[in-house]
Write a sequence for this structure.
């Protein structure tokens, strides 16, 4: 399998699961609206999940659009070790950023 075909297939898988995530989010929101209506509890819930979802969307979008193609490019050149080094560095930064944001949110 060529690297272009691999990237295309990986992109299709990611797009499919992103679409499923959005569809399930609509179902979740509809179930909450059905159960609670527009109350203070549902408003508090939606406000509490807005920031984490936004951060997840931004970081997830960056990983999909930047890191995956760069990683695949390194693998296609046979530079497997360098590709994994970059991937591990980026993932470490992402985990640290999420940990800091989580701690700020808890405080």
């Amino acid at each position: 399998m060529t690297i272009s075909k691999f990237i295309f297939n990986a992109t299709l898988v990611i797009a499919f699961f992103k679409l499923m995530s959005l569809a399930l989010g609509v179902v979740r929101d509809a179930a909450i609206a059905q159960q609670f209506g527009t109350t203070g509890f549902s408003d508090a819930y939606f406000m509490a999940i807005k920031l984490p979802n936004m951060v997840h969307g931004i970081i997830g979008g960056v990983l999909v659009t930047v890191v995956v193609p760069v990683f695949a490019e390194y693998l296609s050149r046979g530079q497997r070790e360098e590709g994994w080094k970059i991937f591990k560095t980026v993932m470490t930064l992402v985990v640290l950023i999420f940990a800091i944001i989580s701690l700020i949110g808890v405080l």
